[in-house]
Amino acid sequence: TCAKLGCGQKDSTCSCDDTCSQIMNCCSDYGSVCRGPAPKLKLGDVNLVVTTDLHSWVGGRKHEPYLNATLAHAVSLVEQLRILAREQKRDVFFLDNGDINDGTGLSATAQDHVDSLAPVMLHAPYDALNIGNHELYQLNSKGTEPGQACAITALRDSGYIAAWGGRYLTSNVVWASSKEPVGSRYTVLKGEFGTNLLTFGFLYNMDDHCDAVEVEDVNATVHSQWFTEALRAHSPSSHGIVVLAHMDYRDELVDVILAGIRSVVGLKMPVQFLTGHSHIRGWRRLDNFATSFEAGCKMDTVGFASFDKVATGDVPDFYHADIDGNTAELASSANTTKAELLLPEGENFLIALRAAEDALHLGETLGCSAKHYRNWAPLDQDDSLWAYYANTVLPATLFEPSGRRQWAVMGTGGLSYDVYKGPFSRNDAYTTSPFGNFWFTLKGIVGAHLQELLLHLNGGEIGIDVRRRLSGHVATPEDRVPNYVATGPLEEAKTYDLIYCDFDSDRVEGLLKQILGSVLPSRLQYRPGSNTSSVLVDWFRTQPCPHEEHTFV
User: Fold this and answer.
1) 349-372 burial, b for 16+ CB within 10 Å, e for fewer?
2) Which residues of 218-239 are buried (b: 16+ CB within 10 A; e: fewer)?
3) Three-state helix/strand/coil letters over 177-234
């Protein structure tokens, strides 16, 4: 807790322990112990409000009262700042840095992870948006299962990308079939008071993307003809360059992109990188005319950055601030009150959000949890979520009562939020397990081979590989949770039906082939309609709340 560890320098989302990547992981008392005055924002000639890695967390946090702000409140922060800035003839831009999906029931209840989310997001008046890695994960096992290949194909087919009018940016992501960019390579944002910002949207060098797209190498992209021509054509009339970069603020690719920009426009063009992906807060100066700023995740932070238009050669004063995802903090930052924060665009977003939540019945209470289960508690602790999920939930909801021996294994990136004591809603199920991965089975695998599989899954560099699902989270200490968890002990000489989810399939099947030294048995989809999220729905329907329990005398 922060009360024991202190609040540090407030330079990361989880301010009291730098081994944590989010407030929820270690600092449940952050809001009461570490809360300080909201930042008084310094308006410049150029003002940027940014969200990143929303992961569909746009509706506030029921279980974390301090983080009560919705994306509607961020929208209205922009409205409020524009009122203030207009008096000074300054421009304010609203930007998102990707990973809109995979986090709550608003996303994971749909096969494509965006069917309900995308129409809501269209009510947020962003000036430009970037793509993230979560829009690109494979969802249909490369065509062997029905449905969209990945979220980005659904965003294309629904008209979401087109609806942004060229402001959905994919500087280095193209369609695999046509080699045409998924969105726009770049755009020039034009402010009410004459500000021009040449804006790009980059993704890190992602290699585990879906088969519908290709992610072009960042270094190759910044040496491409279109990039050079865009800089030459638009930088002379721009007051700065903004790079939405879905990568850690310290990523060396940030420096690669900056070097590519500097090689064309010179050393004195202001460049503001708005970074993300690693779910933390961070800032660094790249040179006298460039900085990199990352603003948390999942609406725990709304980022603000500003700089002034300066005469050529004068060093700009780059300013940034992390605003906690709290309605009072957002209101105070805009010099207003919590009661007066919401304005029409924010209210419109909130109406669309609540309508979508109601249509999905996300508030429906499924049952109750007898205790608080923590995502990163060690497996031998009684509040371990992974021990609960693997040893109680999966055997009860996933295994068949056929008498066949079954054994399931799953990567621990698959759960991303705690189960809290008390009523457990449909949205809680999809927040705890937000990816909805379907199941495969391989029949007749010897227990000794499965033991070896689990050993290899949890060994060596494999830990780095599995963490990709956590969007770059800080690595969890080894004594908390292993990279893969299984449903129970094995008898070496007995045979089992192995159950695993599609996200883990390449790793599991690749290692098992090496162990067996032969071709694997035919892979079958297991229990169609069931997935890593729905098992929690099924389980908690069998866990009545105390007032529903029958008392026998």
Assistant:
1) bbebbbebbeebebeeebbbbeee
2) beebbebeebeebbeebbeebb
3) CCCCECCECEEEEECCCCCEEEEEEEECCCCCCCCCEEECCHHHHHCCHHHHHHHHHH
Cα(63)–Cα(61) distance, rounded to whole angstroms?
Answer: 6
Residue pair 458/452 in contact by the 8 Å Cβ criterion: no
Predicted confidence (pLDDT) per residue in 184-225, tens digit: 999 999 999 999 999 999 999 999 999 999 999 999 999 999
**Residue 469: which of 495, 441, 514, 502 has the closest Cα?**
502
What Cα–Cα distance (Å) separates residue 159 from each residue in 93, 100, 122?
Answer: 23, 16, 11
**For residues 552 and 118, what is the distance between their CA atoms, to the nearest angstrom?**
49
Do 411 and 504 contact (CB within 8 A), yes or no?
yes
Complete DSSP assignment for 399-448: S-TTS--EEEEEETTS--SPBPSEEEEHHHHHHHS-S--EEEEEEEEEHH
Look-up of token digits 């890593």: 532
Strands 406-411 and 290-295 turn out to be: unpaired
Length of the chain: 553
Render pLDDT for 373-403 as a digit per residue (tens, 0 to 9).
Answer: 998 889 999 999 999 999 999 999 999 988 8
Question: In the numeric block, which tokens belong to residue 163?
Answer: 């609806």
Please give the pLDDT value at position 465: 35
Q: Scan for tokens 């495969």, then name that residue.
A: 440
> Of all helices (H) and strands (E), which one includes residue 175?
strand 173-175
Taking the C-alpha atoms of residue 537 and residue 535, their distance in angstroms, rounded to an integer, is 5
What separation in angstroms does the CA of 548 have from each of 363, 364, 400?
Answer: 18, 15, 28
Contact criterion met (CB below 8 Å) for 530 and 439: yes
